[in-house]
Design brief:
Macrophage Migration Inhibitory Factor, two-stranded antiparallel sheet, 4 strands, elongated, 4-oxalocrotonate tautomerase-like domain-containing protein
Amino acid sequence: MPIINVDCWEGFNAEQKEQWIKELTNATVNLFNIPPDKVLVILRETRLANWGQAGVVASDPDFLAKSRLTE
């Protein structure tokens, strides 16, 4: 049984999550020729204040600019 874990940030609405789970399930069913009831999808949402990139917390209003540091 495939278990698909998706780590994502919070902010997706219920309809988006429902569609995401449906599409991941369909792709897995079609690729591996298995029944849908054998596919488990888990969405794990993380608050923006709980992750960061390049030393910048994602809830920072200037996150996109500040997190593009290459040096």
